[in-house]
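Worked example

This section walks through a single chain of length 639. The input is the sequence exactly as stored; nothing has been trimmed or padded.
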Amino acid sequence: MRNFLGGALVLAVAVWQPMYASNPARAEELTELEEIVVTDGLTSIELEKSGRAITVISGDDMEKNQIRYVSDALRLVPGVAVSRTGSYGGMTQIRVRGAEGNQVLVAIDGVTANDVGQGEFDFGSLVADDIERIEVLRGPQSTFWGANAMSGVINIVTRRGERGAVRSRARTEVGSDGSVSSALSARGGGEAYDYSLSGSFAETEGFNISSAGGEDDGGRNGTLNGNFKIDLSPDTTMDATLRGVSRRSDSDPQAVDAAMTYDAGDYTKNREFDGSVGITSLLLDDALTQKMLFSGNDIYHFRHSEEYGNSSDDGNRYDASYQTSFRLDDADNVIHQLTAGYEWQRETFAPSHLAETFSRDASSLIGEYRGEFFDQLYLNLGARHDWNNGFEDAGTWTASAAWQVPSRDLRLHASVGTGVTDPTFYEQFGYFPGGFIGNPNLQPERSLGYDIGVEKSLSDGSLVVDVTYFNQNLENEITTVYDADFLARPINNDGESRRQGVEISATLDFFNGVTMAASYTYTDATEQAVASGPRLVEVRRPRHVGSLKAAYVFFDDRARVYAEAVFNGRTVDTVFASDVPPRVTLAGYSLVNVGSSLKINDTLEMFGRIDNLFDRDYRDVYGFKSPGLTAFAGLTAAF
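Given that input, the structure is written out below as tokens.
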């Protein structure tokens, strides 16, 4: 907390000076806010009309704050906990509202990106270049997004081309630990088509993630992304996306006695491909919309261990969907919209040690109703049924509402729903002969959750505060038990896990070039121990997390300085070692990052930043060190 308050003082100084010297006339100018549309359900809607807890991160904000990995942007979002193993690009887990990492679904341009084998998405591979926006939907979302969306959805939309224009952008950067990165993008279009292509490369020699020895652990990441859209007729369009990632990350094993890492030549190589092709048709003056989408995802892992040798696995997911929507606008400011959809999915998984490919299929029917009443009340209802050939079928439902209270600058929002998370292939079929046995009889995890919140605007919209309470349970939780020979196997727990808390966020615009934002989350997440034991605090889910950031734009909007402080409270972690208790507490920490940028002309911009300004020693995962003070500088060209 002392470190966090020190960071807050840095922010206060950064904000006070421009406020003191600001032009009063300019301070009266109001900032015109762009309307934000989010993917809330089967259809999109304006953010203020959604009853769900949603945070939107724009790509422009990430660029201005020089964020290179999406996980660092998510640290500033209410309800989100980040656990990174070691250096940048290392294994990174995201947990939402106290849930597991495989209970949040990640979609990139409409393609489900979660790993088939483990069920979760490794954010260590996801760089922040060429992203238009990130939508973080919290609460059960399985009705519209399917399994693994039990606690929320992180929906990532990349930049699109602009018709009638051609724009290019290039960035190069160097920094501490032998780090270099670069990015290049080009987008444009004609009268009936648009396109966007981008590529990025990052490499670092890294630092020693173990507490002993002197070997540096680095990594590299190469990412290519593209999308294309063409008008087949005045009412029909076709679009396609493609994304590829090649990544290597050095790692160190953990000792058997104390689970502390030690130097070794271990590493992992990952290859990711995903893409989609879709057709959209608008009929009856756009009242009837039909969409067809086919998408695919492939993730290959190769692991080298000096002690255990090499291993690998390859997972694939194929999805096909069709949905149709009909919208009816009444003359009395009442809108009704009905949507129905069908989805088919096939998943395959091939681990190297079993010489066998496993597969499972699922099909789903989904229905949605959306209503808007008198420009102030907005409703959303949905239901879904999944047919699975590998385990029990599942049904889910959801409801949400938002009320813009007239003449009060007040918005009330609430949502309730159920969610499911399917067993992973690892859990069903096992992944370590002699150490872990899969359980093909596992059933999906189930959950019921709700949230209710209030959003208040003050001072003509310059200050916006949102407070949300959430509560969610978890039944059929899949947990691991051990027999007398210490052989592990997964089972469905008879107990119930409980998660509840409060999310607070605030944004402040002084209309003189100064902006601030803050967030705080209290999370109470406990699990039911095996054999009806006492409740235990869920691992890697701190009770208290918070952030504070400020920015000042000056010199005719050509110069910008910013600072941000992130606080992560004490966290419980699990340890598998002979000389250490099975559960340990990691100390809380605070990090302060600062940076600045200056536009040299209409084409060039120079920038620099310092991460972990006070060089704090902290841990996200037991036994793995995290980066100390690092500095970066570079140039951006837009033309």
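What to look for: Confidence is low (pLDDT under 50) at residues 3-32.
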